[in-house]
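Help!! Second protein's tokens look totally different from the first
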Amino acid sequence: MLSARTDFSAFIGIDWSGAKGERHGGLQLACAKPGKAVPETLAPPSHSRWSRPEVMACLAELAAQAGDQAVLVGIDFAFAHPFDDYNSYFPRANGLVPENPASLWRLVDDVNADQRHLYGGAMFQHPIWGRYYLAPPKFDADRYQSRRRLTEYAAREAGKSPSPTFKAVGADNVCTGSLAGMRLLHQLKTALGAALTVWPFEPLKSGVTKLVLVEIFPSFYFHHLDLVPDKNAAAKAAFLNRALYGYDSAGVAADFVAAGHDADEADALISAAALRHFASNGCFDLAPAIQRVAQQEGWIFGVPPVPA
């Protein structure tokens, strides 16, 4: 098994976007190196904004270049839908219902095969699966429920919980980003095979794993420190640095102003610092009862495995 506390060469925080289109200001990447240095923002390769396929190519390159130490990457989307409440992602659905995360990712990618830039919105129009999503333009999801994963209940008790994964409307929509992210997980796993470990669905293996992907929730990392980034507060250096210091990281320059409509760059920076911090504090270790659920639903990295 990989020693997750010591064997990472870098920690990459990615603030994700599921919006339609090619490039998005909300896509922001930051890298923290081992130690306490402030994380650095990663610029896109050929444009002022990242595209999702470019992010995927970047991750594949990180895996190819990794040596003896793996790279830990956190991405801001739900890695799976709720499962444990009904023992199904899509209760009462007709057809071949996915029974595990890998088959869920494959389903989402197959349904969206004709959608460019890893967009996942075709799920909303599907005659079977679309009935489960609260999404435009019809809002007629007769099987939609405000279901939550176990990790979301735990996150709420520990600071802040994201919205339900089937809710694709409102400013707190995590659904479109999660569907785009599931496409990325399927395609990246297909391309990299055993070199990629998606936690907590797979064990980390020393000498084989080059890239470890975990689910993150940037807002949780602020709230976990009793810092509430209202009204774009995280875009400002003073507020962001209070959070960075809380994760044993050096701070940004005093004149720093985060890029992105919702201070997305700050979310990437705090996520990279939190990944570095939590990787050294046993956050890969889940109790057997929690692990059983997490292997179907996923787990937000850094959320205490037992509700406080």
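Here's the second one for comparison:
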Amino acid sequence: MKASKMQSITYDQVKSKIIEIRDQNVILDSDVAELYGVETRAINQAIKRNAYKFPNGYIIELTKAEWEQVRSQIVISPLGGGRVFTPKAFTERGLTMLATILKSPQAVATTIAIIDTFAQLKELTQSIYQFSKASTDGEKVKIFENSTQIVADLLDNEKRAFLVQLLGK
């Protein structure tokens, strides 16, 4: 998919692309390309030209079995269509490194949305963990209030879309 104009990227758009592979949250190369408004081929060419920036743990090359499992979970998607090669999956570190390569306004706005999404998911996960370890009701109430604010922030798509659009102009 090639974007003709810059699009605002929301939390929901990024979150819907995150899948779990080998116990890691990742985004497939084709989904990264869609978010960045470029073709998958452009993402993969950028990786090849800058391979030294992607050490182990930044990109996961899916096995055929992993790809079949992912593909079977996707109800309607162009992902599986005519792919010749199994996709690459970007970890959070790989996405951050990719941001150093792609420089367009769309890329910057998308990178901000992706980083914010991963950060908020981590914060919410940490908050849930802290809640499970809290020993007093007072601690649980404080943690619950914090978690509620995190969820409210995650759901505030209008504010996020406006910020992303503003940064892209």
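Reply: Different proteins will give different token patterns, so don't panic. The longest strand covers residues 24-28.
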